[in-house]
Structures are given as structure tokens and as C-alpha cells.
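request received
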Amino acid sequence: MKLAIVGYGNLGKSLEKEIDKRTDLMLTAIYSRRTLDNGRYRPLQSIATTHDFDVALLALGSYNDIAEYATTFAQLDTVDSFDTHAKIADYKKAVGDVKKDSLSIISTGWDPGLLSLARATFGIGGGESVTLWGEGVSQGHSNAIRSIRGVIDAVQFTRPKPNADERISNGERNSAKLHDRICYVACIEADKQRIKREIVTMPDYFADYDTEVIFTTPNEVRQLKQRTAHRGQVVTVGDGFYVKTDVRLDCNTDYTAKIMLAYAEALPRLKTDGYRGALDVFDIPLKYLVDRPLI
Amino acid sequence: MKLAIVGYGNLGKSLEKEIDKRTDLMLTAIYSRRTLDNGRYRPLQSIATTHDFDVALLALGSYNDIAEYATTFAQLDTVDSFDTHAKIADYKKAVGDVKKDSLSIISTGWDPGLLSLARATFGIGGGESVTLWGEGVSQGHSNAIRSIRGVIDAVQFTRPKPNADERISNGERNSAKLHDRICYVACIEADKQRIKREIVTMPDYFADYDTEVIFTTPNEVRQLKQRTAHRGQVVTVGDGFYVKTDVRLDCNTDYTAKIMLAYAEALPRLKTDGYRGALDVFDIPLKYLVDRPLI
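response:
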């Protein structure tokens, strides 16, 4: 199977590493907007006219420009890990609208993706699910801090409150009451009070959370960014049952890459069976992802 | 939605109880081979000629007589919890072969069923899964003990070894090395040594396990049988990740009933979309079981 990677940030690099481990997969090209010092680099605008791969693995930093997505990738079979939960439905519709003979599997990865499957599976008995993330880096929140004037660098770790399980048992379902956010920030001394205030009052991101701001050096922030481990727990509480799914991973992007590759391998079988347009993990029977009968 | 229950053991009774809790479901009849003291009872042989329900919920003690299944249920839409893992493939084929315009969803429940989905989901990243059962009653093993000459009554509890997690981390995958089996047996004094020997040497069931036999009174066995709680854990170990799914339930058959009802509700939607024959949980996209887009 021949694959292309589109985008060469952390996820693109993880995809490259995982494909190179596999003898049954071949990486034909890495497409990027930036010129890369990589023998497999090709400029992104050339992707629409090349046909030497089966599936394009989208590892773009942002999928916000839906119009550009539509024109650039309309003819291609793609797998992505689009992860802005609130925008998935719009994204799916936009992608589906431009795909005629091609197929896109969207929002794979571990969350959304495998934890979505866990929430759906254990919701079958009528349960209600709460998800706990961390301890691990929240990329979007780290970016939000870095966008504050005067911040040199920053990284934000999310972790469940120590008594999160107990709070869930007592009926708490609000994510903001179940997590703490710890922000490591490098900035100059004079800006500290203002920056701290801007962080802890930032709506949507921090205002509703217990947020701790720790000022440190750019060097320590750089080192903390290398902590790639993450964890996700789905707790499902129902009438007469309790389910906990606990996923611990060494490297967020490596795990996402493995999952994207599994869906890429399923894609040709789905096309053979007539699937077209945009599918998410709820649309795809698990028989396409396992290599044996019911287990 | 109108439902019928076929079979009136523990599972049939749990199905009746769960349906009666629900305002959107109606129980039209309970079919059984035995004459029941229940206002909704009808003799099993009348089921093939009645058409006043949408889905038949099969709660038979045994599905071994495939030929009888085929003739009796060929025209009906059914949901079952057939759980003899080794025979599921044959059962699925036999059911599928007789279903033309009808649909059967087989082997739902928590295991096989939801834990099958968990094993498949977390196998997507390339992991290998081990399942731990208990502590809870193993019905098949309890029956095996009761079939020994001289046994008045018996119940068998299965539980993971205290260090099962550590053994899995060290590479152990053999279920017999990860569980203990505790047998409570009522019999007369003179038979004890022979019965104990017959239990612990019974091939497939006990010979490979650490098995403890505790002799007690018929009364205590009867009380122990009322412990309906059960637990299942799926541990998936992969390259760079570790997942544990832990399902705890108050009552084995109540939980199975809830899951069967969810699949029964999905069945008409699956038929509308063209599905026929025999499906297991790997064949059915989760979108049919959840009431909202990707979560």
C-alpha cells in the first residue's frame, strides 16, 4: 500500500516513523507548504496532479480552511485526525459534499476516535460517559497561552483532579470541575502579573478551571514540551453498571499515527464495498479493522 | 416497539423486567417450552405462526440445536446473546443461511458483545488483548460440577489472580494462568474425595487452572448463587500504549438484557438500510447504537 503524508509537524513525523517500521506500507511523498530538508518532500500544491499513492494521511496543523481542503483534496482518498470536537459535524459535511468517487475517513486518532468508540460502546447499556484527560500536554491551550502578548514560550498540562473518580460517582459531569490546568510560562519579570491574570480569566480555555500558572525559563518550557505521554479515561455510569476505560500512551502523536494507519489500511476494503464520501469512526463496522471473526 | 421473549430463565426474567421499565417498549408475549405461570406466556411452538411483535429476544438456555433454530425462527427478526465463543462462527453461518428477508443480531451482551468491541477498538493501534473475568459466577462451569455424580448442588466463582496485571505485563497471555476457580459444592461426606478429584482433573474446565473446592451445605450454595455481580477487564498492551477496560456490573443478566434491548431497537433501522441475514457486533456501525453524531 502506497501512502502520502500531508503536513510535517509532530504528527507528520510520527506517521513517517511508523510507516518506515512497516514492510507492507510504502511512503511515496511528504507534502508540505514549507520546503523540507527531506528526500521525500514535494510542494503541497503538486498533490492534486499526482497519482502515485493510494491514501493521503492528513497531518496538517489546521483544517480550518474548509474551502481549501475541498479544492485541494476532492479527488483523493484521505485519512485525518481532525479533532476540534465542536466542528466535526460541519467538517464532515464539507468533506462529504466534495467527495464523489473518493473516500475520506475523518477524526480518527485516540480522542476523537478510539475513546469515541469506547463512549459509544459503553453507552449501549444506557450509561452516561465522562472523559478525563491527562496528565498530558493540551496543545490548543498551550497555543492560547503563547498567543498572549509578552509570553516567550509556554506549555500547558491538563490532569484530572485527584478526587475526580469520587466526584463522578457523586454526579459531577462538568469537565471544568474534574480537571486542573497547570501552565508553565516563560516571560519577562515585568509582565508576570498581567499575563497570569490574562491566562486565568481567559474564557472557554481557563476561566472555568482551577488553573495554576508557574513561571519558569524558556529552557525548562522546551524540556517540558518533550513530555509526550498522555492519558485518557472514559468513565461510564449506568443503572447497575460502571465502566472505566483507561488509555495510557507514551507519545500522543505516535499513537495517533498508528490509528490513522489502521484506518488507511481499511480504506480500500471500504471502497470495494461501496463506501464513498466522508465517514467517521461511528460509520465504520469494526470488522474492517480486525483481521478475524468476532472475538 | 413490540417485543417477544423466547425462554424464561434468568435472562428471560431480566428482559421482562427491563422492558417493563420502559414506556417505549411493549412486551407482547413470553414463549417457552415449559408452561409458565405468567399472563404473557405462550407455547413456543406457536411462535412461527404469530406476527404481533417486531423483534424476538432469544433467551434460551441453549442454542445448540441449530436445526431447530433454523426451522422455528427463520422468518423472525431476532436478537440473541449466544455466548459459546468457539461456536460463534458456525452459529452465525447457520443463522445467516436461513434468513432471507429477516435479520438476526447474534452474540450481543457484555462478553461476547461489548468486550468484543473493546478488544477490537483497542486492537486498532496494534495491541494484543487479554481478558480477565470476575469475580463472578461462571454458569457453564457451575453446570459442569453439577453434572458430576453425587453432587447435590454447586456454584463456581471465577476471579483474576491477585497479581494478574503484573503477569500480563510480564507477557502472560494464558487465561488459565491468570484466573483462579473457586467451587462451592454440596454433597454427602462419603463422596467428597472422589468429587474433588473429578473436579480438579476435569479437562478444558478445571485441569489447567488453580482450582479450589470448598464443601458446604445446599443452603449456602443456594445463597451464593444469588451473587449476581460480575466483572470483566480487557487489558490491551501495544507498542507505546496500555489500555484497560474495566466493566463492573451488579447483575450479569440485567446488563445483558439492557444490551440486547439496545440492539433490538437498532434492528428496524438496520433493516431499513438493507441489512439482512446474521450480523454480529463487528458488522454493525456504532451510529446505529448512538443517538448523536461522533462524540
